[in-house]
Design goal:
Number of strands: 16
Radius of gyration: 20 Å
Shape: globular
Number of helices: 10
Largest sheet: 9 strands, mixed
CATH superfamily of the largest domain: Response regulator
Number of domains: 2
CATH class of the largest domain: Alpha Beta
Strand content: 15-25%
CATH architecture of the largest domain: 3-Layer(aba) Sandwich
Length: 363
């Protein structure tokens, strides 16, 4: 059994995508004949209730691993899971706090790490908006500050004329006012989806934003990053083959639910979890799962996951795209970098692997 939590429980679109993939997998024999049972609890997006949910999953349900937890989490929970020897696989945070393998070897982040994301966006802005006057809006927490730090490290030749901490949607107006006051020509945002949507509705200059904004239904023209296949990927491309697979799974197990970035996220992470379970061998153990996670090949994320004894920080990189017709249309290839604040951003030398014909990981 796998356990997790998300706002809305299994109705959350990320969790729903994962459940749909596991149902697809179970209908085709599961993992070496074993069905995956995935229990998702509703955390109501309230950090205070998460410890009780975790104890219920670990002590009551005796889950083999926690998988794909979305929403409120915190280092206290990851620390408890690690001390209990329960792998916390694909924790839904890009925070560096879930990328401490020396201290928490059982914890593996899933989305693009905040520093990596900031560096990739910074390199893009430096190339396409050199000489422009930039304003950066960021959430005043670890995620926002890490994204900003990564951006500053690689956005060379760009003038950052304003840095505005934005705590919530109401603060978006202040960010826009500050940007206009200094005559910026581009706005970069490391903000939650609701804030990003407010910014997009209020500015007339290019908006470059972290991938969290994909969930906000942003208007056409917004530039952002993605590390998973986009519904806007060319149908005949390797990334497009994953979209075709996920559409087939959605049509079978999520009728009526659109294949949005959150559903794709859930299906992709569930595929990678299944891949790790297969690679862990016939006699499945938690240490075997941890070892398998550190050797996963590239899958639906296109680039390999940065899992090793020294790095548990999710995918190594992402591509940049432009929102067109409600979907992210890639405009660059995959770009990779390290989780450290310094270090180059470079094109990924490998190729995006196509989806396997039956949608099952290679044994």
């Amino acid at each position: 059994m796998l356990g997790g939590w998300a706002p809305g429980g299994a109705r959350n679109p990320v969790a729903a995508g994962a459940v749909a993939y596991f149902r697809w997998l179970n209908a085709r024999g599961g993992v070496r004949g074993h069905r995956i049972v995935y229990r998702v609890l509703d955390d109501r997006n309230d950090r205070r209730v998460v410890p009780s949910l975790v104890h219920r999953l670990v002590q009551g349900d005796a889950v083999f691993a926690v998988f794909g937890a979305v929403g409120a989490q915190g280092t206290a929970v990851t620390g408890f899971l690690d001390s209990a020897g329960v792998p916390d696989v694909f924790a839904g945070s890009g925070c560096s706090c879930v990328n401490e393998p020396a201290r928490m070897p059982e914890v593996f982040g899933w989305p693009l790490g905040d520093v990596r994301e900031g560096k990739i966006l910074g390199a893009y802005v430096a190339r396409h908006y050199a000489g422009e006057k930039i304003a950066v809006a960021y959430r005043p927490d670890a995620a926002g500050r890490n994204g900003l730090a990564g951006f500053v490290a690689t956005a060379r030749g760009v003038r950052v004329a304003a840095k505005v901490a934005v705590a919530g949607p109401a603060g978006a107006a202040a960010a826009v006012h500050a940007a206009k006051a200094v005559g910026v020509t581009v706005i970069v945002a490391f903000t939650p989806a609701r804030v990003t949507a407010k910014l997009a509705a209020s500015v007339q200059v290019p908006l470059v934003t972290s991938g969290s904004g994909l969930a906000a239904g942003l208007p056409d023209g917004v530039i952002t990053d993605g590390f998973l296949p986009s519904a806007g990927a060319p149908a005949d491309s390797p990334a497009g083959s994953w979209v075709r697979l996920f559409r087939k799974i959605g049509a079978r197990y999520l009728p009526g639910m659109p294949l949005n970035p959150a559903v794709i996220d859930g299906m992709a992470s569930a595929y990678e979890m299944a891949a790790a379970l297969f690679r862990a061998g016939v006699n499945l153990t938690r240490p075997g799962l941890v070892a398998a996670l550190r050797s996963l090949p590239a899958g639906p994320a296109g680039v390999p996951l940065a899992y090793s004894a020294a790095d548990h920080g999710g995918p190594k990189g992402a591509y940049i795209g432009v929102i067109r017709g409600g979907v992210l249309v890639p405009s660059t290839g995959q770009l990779v970098t390290t989780a450290a604040r310094m270090g180059p951003v470079t094109p990924f030398a490998g190729r995006w692997p196509p989806a396997p014909p039956a949608g099952l990981p290679t044994r």
